[in-house]
Fold these 3 entries.
Entry 1:
Amino acid sequence: GIRLAPKEKLDIPVLFKPDTMKMYEAVVVIHVMRENGENWPYEDTAELNKDLKSSVTVGENGGIQEILWIYPVYGIPEAPQQKLVPAVVRCRARQRVERRIEVLLTGVVPGAAVMPATRNSAVVSTKKPANIQEVVQVTDGFSKPVEFLYELQYQSNEIKSQLETLVGMHLVQSEWDTESRIVTLIFNIVFAPNKPIRNEATLVVQCTTGGVWKFPVRFIAMEPEVDDVINIEAVGLNKESIIGFKLASQTR
């Protein structure tokens, strides 16, 4: 019974309040018809394509009687942002370090509906990247394994361009506690900086049955070690002493 004038906008609030870490689905349907009850004139109602036929109702005397707009909604719960101490990966510039990071995923719901592959996710891409892993084999009465997606997200494109080529990450171990429903994931992170840097990233883990967890990671590259010491001996007062040394470039 909402009246909408021509060119007028209508805001439709959608509230999402999940109680478990699984994906929820809903559909928002907008049903519109003319206030005077007349049909919209449309001459070629017999030629309506299949997509349009599913969203309009054609009247007996021709024309369009009502129109439907259908919007699917996927609700993906995200774990509450706690004040977590960032995991720190630290080493000197021009060196390489490996660090293992353990994260705990609470509230994982096995056996829930898997997210549709056609959705547009703002959290983790579903285009089957190399970091997709089937990390938990649920055997406590569940036949399907639980699959997780993970990636490092950065605060800006500038930070991403600085860190993306310096950081590598892969999953090395996973554990499932059926009593507490806590999944433990252990990642191996490789950090090989080429200059001093200090930036943060976010490890984002997403379960294909729904649910997102985020963990802060801080990368610190300190000043590199001294390459060598150059000693110059004086040959006398007011006389120049010269010494030569070579610098090798690692790039073109």
Note: Residues 117-131, 136-143 have pLDDT under 50 and may be disordered.
Entry 2:
Amino acid sequence: KSFLNHTAYLSCYFPNSQKTDIKDLRVFWQKGAVEVVHEVYYGQEIHDNLSPKYINRTKMDMDKWTLQLLNAGIVDEGQYTCIIQHRDKGSPKVIHTSECLLHIIANYSQPEIAWLHTGELKPKEYLNLSCSSSGGYPEPKHMTWLVSHENKTDRLMGPMDVSQDAVTMLYNVTGRLNITVPTNTLTNISCLLHLGEQLGSLLSVPLGI
């Protein structure tokens, strides 16, 4: 996993138990079946075969057998393969391959609750609220509303609209809640945006009614 616009670290997981000299190895990384990301040819980095979008964006740490992918973007998500060949009696022989799946993460803004109507609230009327968060990746799972009064908290689900920016590929999300106005009791309403196991959840500032 890598944060958007940060450096992603992709490991070859090559133990090099034989302590083979890098000058006897050809190391190359590719994405999918066709794109060459990085190539070290018997100790020398060469750029002739690289896919254009990776030129000047990669560095290989030969001590850790790890590729650094600079300024990782959402389009860089996907499966990468590290292939190592040994120069054996002149003809190269593959001695190691490994795969690495890259996921990009971008932080969502803290969810914010907004009123969707004007005028004075009267008991037993309907209260319309929205909760919005923006600029995140990947797509969120769902949104839960927490309605707390006295010593009790209800968890409610409402509809959630998700849109993706065509240029940045980042997601914006808005959830809606429609409940009756509580009577004679202080009520706090929060919304909780669920982002999946890796990223956890984001909680809004509570709205007091």
Note: The radius of gyration is 25 Å.
Entry 3:
Amino acid sequence: SVTIFSTMLARSLKRIGESGVRGFASSSRDPSVKYDFIPAEEKDKGQIMDVALNHFLYTEPHSVALGITKDTGKELIDWIVSKSLHYPFCYTIVHKETGKTIGFRLMSVSHRDHSKDFSPFELDEAKFDEGIQILGTILEGMKHDIWKLQPEANKILRREITFVHKDHQRQGIAKHLLHLGLDFEKLRLAGYDGIQSEASSFANQTLLSKNGYTLLMESQRKEYTRSDGRPVVFHDSTSSMQLFYRNLRK
């Protein structure tokens, strides 16, 4: 009887284990089971700013390596969030169980004719911390060079920031967000030529390279040098900023 009981118990545990694995796999494939993906509006700015300043800046590889904090980075983050919310392409991610915002996707629009670009307010870049100035120089270079690298493009959808809190990563959220709410045919009809992304983390670079984006250029090691000669050191597999592009005009 002990043997029969042991066999029954083993089979029961196996079924539970298989069910658990299937449940986890299903959740991983479809993160909407555990998370709500909500189109972001101006009213959501405060919550997005809170997550960006208190979590994004302290985990994003370039921000960490360059020593950017919520105090030194607040104005720049405010500018990016305000600019992105001007357009209808942003999302917040809410964990259903706790009701907490655990991430977001910010996107904006960029034109060859820069006079058409929306700017929420003027940035006093001369007052920025050196780490932000290094980051800004790299980003501005890529924003400028995209028009040389894509001479046929005039209007581009731009991925500004996609962030998922570290406690909720590896759930398929970033991939789910990649093209969420983006109808490529409607974008083409609205005059968009492509989607641009300056990928600042190794994980994001890998995601884009596997999902139809082409690597156009990347930052050089010499760009990561402080005024006193000290090199900027990354703390993970990230080693550069990479400019990716997905052509919508094919």
Note: The CA atoms of residues 109 and 157 lie 5 Å apart.
